[in-house]
Design brief:
Rossmann fold; globular; 40% helix; alpha/beta
Length: 239
Amino acid sequence: MGGSNQKKLKDVWDAIATTWENSSENYGKTIHKKLLVKFLGDVTNKKILEIGCGDGRYLKFLQERGAYVIGLDISDVALSLAKKRGQVIKADARNLPFKSNVFDAVFSFGVVEHFDETQKAINEHQRVTKKDGIIIISVPNIFSPYNILAALWHIKKGTWRMRPASYGKRFTLKQLKSMLEKSNNTEVIELSGLNIFPIYFSFLNRIGFISRLAELELKLKNISKIIALMIVAIGKKRR
């Protein structure tokens, strides 16, 4: 990746990360946590890597469940927030600074769509995962009606011209599955939509509504594949 493109990616996410410090627990964050619990199970003493760790809230969440977690991000601003919640390093998703077969699980939420070398980043997810380890990757759903709102948001903010660093690429479930299976060493064990209800009203979380809604979404696989903001693939490394 060219230096100018990498700088663009970093600049976009440094700017976005400045809005995270006081952000509340919204629906998207809740559904991500429930997804991690569902597919990672008991994480006690497991070594886990989050690629694109943002403000680090999933690092803290998994640490509290007994895991050893490392977070990685390209944004200095994001890392300054995440280090308050766990162990972090600055690195690029397309060139992970780890040996092969190190982690019991590797995951990223909405990361690999933000640059051209998406396949390279997915290959890196797989490379650093141990045999029988779990890989979770989510990307934007090409069919989601929420794409219109996301595009309008970036146009309003003046970041539309900086895509895919800003407004990332969109994918179908078939494309995501194909990318994860391309190396022939990962079996896709689940494909689903993710984040049917991108709700950002914190008071709904305080009354428990968001948590119940997230539990419902995990049961609505066929619907979520069509309209959810994101799609997600869960893979198991075979060798």
